[in-house]
Write a structure and sequence with these properties.
The protein is of the alpha+beta class. The protein contains nine helices and ten strands.
Amino acid sequence: MSNSIMKPSLHTPFANALVAKHDGLLCDDGPEEQAARVVAALERVSAVTPFAPMAEHLAVDLAGFGEVPIVYVTEDEDYLLLSDAADALGWPLHKAHAWARHMHDYAIRDQREADEARGDGRIGWDRLLDYVDLGLNLIEDDPGAKPDAGGRRWAHAGDWLISKDRVPHLLVNSPWGKEFVDNSLPAFGHAMRKVWGDKLRSVPTLGEDGTPTGGNAYDDLFSTDGLTEEEALRRARRGPALGDDEPPG
């Protein structure tokens, strides 16, 4: 039995519950070993920032496409569980895991560059805390995979804690990505106009062949579709279906 399981930690109940959630997907190692890896992953984060399970029930709205609970918190950030978001969005866990792994790889590179630029020999964590790999080794049915020797089609997966401020990027890469982007464009237009104002009118827009269109970024790239800022924010959060009280567009 793993020492991490023999010596209960603040993170042990969460780890055991997570492993139980994925019981049918566990690969290679049993529940005790996998729970020990989850505890170890959480202890690593706890060593650099106060990090604890969420004591009360609060949820993250996935812009109207679902809702997931906050499961962990630091002093500065809330975290959701990637598998909860994947379930809510109808996103196969192995594909959500691939997205998280890809983003974590970018974060490692960015952190290393920041460490070298700082030049004090320390290893930083700032850019690594948005994506916390919980160390699970899972397999999931994947109809798109090549069959193995026994004819089964499957893919590796894992689970992660994702900081709440990464939710927009998560949504862009989810099965609802196009709908989320389309819904959010007027709100994004308002945001860019607030930051840059009329300076955007002096930025010409170009066609696909590089020829000027005669338009400008203010009107063409950062359009608000005639919506007020409040209406644009409502549209950005409307999810997969419009209600009768929603603004047009």
